[in-house]
């Protein structure tokens, strides 16, 4: 008779331990801790800068959202006149909401056109301020008679000015 050891059962098997790495993953010198601190400080500084800029640009986002609502209101005949009347007011509110808060409350006509042109990063149409003044103060019939092409140009120029006007901070 032969003496064979009994067959090992699967439940008697043990997992082999994982080998210990030959080196530590933690930095060994204080210089790496300094580098880590600098990188974290730079990342935190950038995040703070980006958050403050995002907060400072809030008025632009809200104005662009309102301009989109006005654009949609132009398609509804009952809301067209009030939407047209609100466009100049929206641009004035944007100018008043700028972080450097320029004194624009009393600007109109050529002075308003000059202000808009100074802050624009592109050339505005010659009669832009006059068209805005027409929207704000002309009789209802004259405002309703504005053509679709001219209205489209006004809205595009207004959107572009809101998106890209220069703010001196």
Q: Separation of termini?
A: 98 Å
DSSP helix fraction: 55-70%
Oligomer: single chain
Extended strand count: 0
Strand content: under 5%
Largest sheet: none
Shape: elongated
Radius of gyration (CA) equals: 33 Å
Estimated structural class: mainly alpha
Q: Would you tell me the overall average pLDDT?
A: 87
Protein described:
The structure is a single chain. With 169 residues, the protein is mostly helical. The chain has a domain at 58-164. Helix content is 63%, strand content 0%. The protein has helices at 30-56, 58-73, 77-97, 109-119, 128-137, 140-144, 148-164. The longest helix is centred in the first third of the chain and has 27 residues, at 30-56. It is elongated, with a radius of gyration of 33 Å. The model has no long low-confidence stretch (mean pLDDT 87).
Give the arrangement of secondary structure elements.
Elements: H1 30-56, H2 58-73, H3 77-97, H4 109-119, H5 128-137, H6 140-144, H7 148-164
Helix pairs in contact: 2-3, 2-7, 3-5, 4-5
How would you concisely characterize the structure shown here?
The chain has 169 residues and is mainly α. It has helices at 30-56, 58-73, 77-97, 109-119, 128-137, 140-144, 148-164. It has a domain at 58-164.
Characteristics:
mainly alpha, 169 residues
């Amino acid at each position: 008779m032969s003496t064979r050891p009994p067959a090992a059962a699967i439940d008697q098997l043990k997992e082999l331990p994982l080998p210990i790495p030959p080196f530590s993953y933690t930095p060994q010198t204080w210089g790496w801790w300094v580098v880590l601190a600098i990188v974290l400080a730079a990342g935190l500084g950038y995040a703070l800068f980006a958050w403050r800029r995002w907060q400072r640009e809030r008025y632009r986002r809200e104005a662009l959202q309102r301009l989109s609502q006005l654009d949609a209101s132009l398609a509804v005949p009952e809301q067209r006149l009030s939407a047209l009347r609100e466009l100049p007011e929206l641009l004035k509110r944007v100018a008043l909401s700028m972080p450097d808060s320029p004194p624009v409350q009393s600007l109109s006509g050529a002075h308003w056109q000059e202000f808009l042109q100074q802050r624009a990063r592109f050339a505005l149409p010659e009669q832009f301020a006059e068209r805005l003044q027409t929207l704000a103060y002309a009789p209802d019939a004259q405002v309703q008679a504005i053509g679709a092409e001219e209205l489209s140009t006004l809205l595009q120029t207004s959107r572009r000015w809101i998106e890209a006007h220069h703010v001196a901070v």
